[in-house]
Structure formats: structure tokens, C-alpha cells
Design a protein that fits this description.
By secondary structure, the protein is mostly beta strands. It has one domain. The protein is built from 1 helix and 9 strands; from the N terminus they run H-E-E-E-E-E-E-E-E-E. An 8-stranded antiparallel β-barrel has the order 1-2-3-4-5-6-7-9. A hairpin with a 2-residue loop joins strand 1 and strand 2. It starts with a helix and ends with a strand.
């Protein structure tokens, strides 16, 4: 059973990494996505039966013109369990692919450890004011910056 779950997670990870839109960087230059921000979800969000309210995130990602990228992405999702207890979901990711669209949006994807589960695919679409995080097959709603910043250069 553990082998089957591992194979499924690896396949999901590869699908996420390979499904990143093929966007070119403006002027074919390298770019960066950096952030240290506390965000709040604008719509109801949940992951693993936890009703989410906020996401603290940090990243330092270098994006190359060929679509490769490297750097860390971390997020702490904070919410309430079904019993009303405060819960945190910690996501520690390694970015493998990225792009910056002409409209200034940054797209990154890679593989993360979510809680204690390694090899979970993730992706982020970020603007200067918000971020949309996908974990595995769960797309969370846009989270708007409340404190800190997201910088795309």
C-alpha cells in the first residue's frame, strides 16, 4: 500500500512539474520571485479537512529563461479543525520550474514535504498582491497579502 501511494505521489509530482505553462520571460532574461508575506484567503479554503484562514509564505526563487528555476518555497497554512482547534499545515518545497509572464505574474512549481508527507507536487501563481497555491490536486483560492510583500522582478 505504501509503495502504491509513493508511486501515485511521484506521478502527481511529475505531472505538476511538467504542466507549468510554457511562458517566456520578458526580454529573455532571468527573473526572481521573493516573498515574505502573511496572506488571508478571500474565499473559503480547506485542505485535509482543515478550514483555512491565513497563509504565511516565504520564497527566494531564481527563474531562468529556459523555464528552469531553483530556490525554496515555504508556507504555513493556519486554520481550524472540524473540532474547532487551531491547526497548521507546514509546506516546505523545492522549486524546479518557473516563468514570469509578460503581465508580471510569476509561475513556480516543484515538489514539497507537506506535514510529514514528502514528494507532494505544488505550484504557485503569484502577483504583487496575491498568490494562488495548488497542493497535490487541491487548488486553494487566492490569498491576498495583508502584511509583508511579494516581489517579482
Amino acid at each position: 500500500m505504501k509503495k502504491l501511494i509513493s508511486v501515485i505521489l511521484i506521478v502527481l509530482g511529475l505531472c505538476t512539474v511538467l504542466s507549468l505553462p510554457n511562458l517566456s520571460l520578458a526580454a529573455s532574461e532571468s527573473g526572481t520571485l521573493t516573498c515574505a508575506a502573511q496572506t488571508a484567503f478571500g474565499a473559503p479554503a480547506s485542505l485535509n479537512s482543515i478550514s483555512l484562514g491565513t497563509m504565511d509564505m516565504g520564497a527566494g526563487v531564481f527563474i531562468e529563461p529556459n523555464g528552469s528555476a531553483h530556490g525554496p518555497f515555504s508556507a504555513v497554512l493556519v486554520g481550524q479543525s472540524l473540532l474547532g482547534q487551531t491547526q497548521q499545515i507546514v509546506i516546505d518545497g523545492t522549486v524546479l520550474r518557473g516563468a514570469i509572464a509578460p503581465d508580471g505574474r510569476a509561475y513556480i512549481s516543484g515538489v514539497a514535504t507537506v506535514g510529514s508527507l514528502p514528494g507532494i507536487p505544488f505550484s504557485v501563481v503569484a502577483t504583487a498582491n496575491s498568490a494562488v497555491l495548488t497542493v497535490g490536486s487541491t487548488i486553494l483560492p487566492a490569498a491576498n497579502v495583508k502584511r509583508g510583500s511579494i516581489s517579482i522582478e
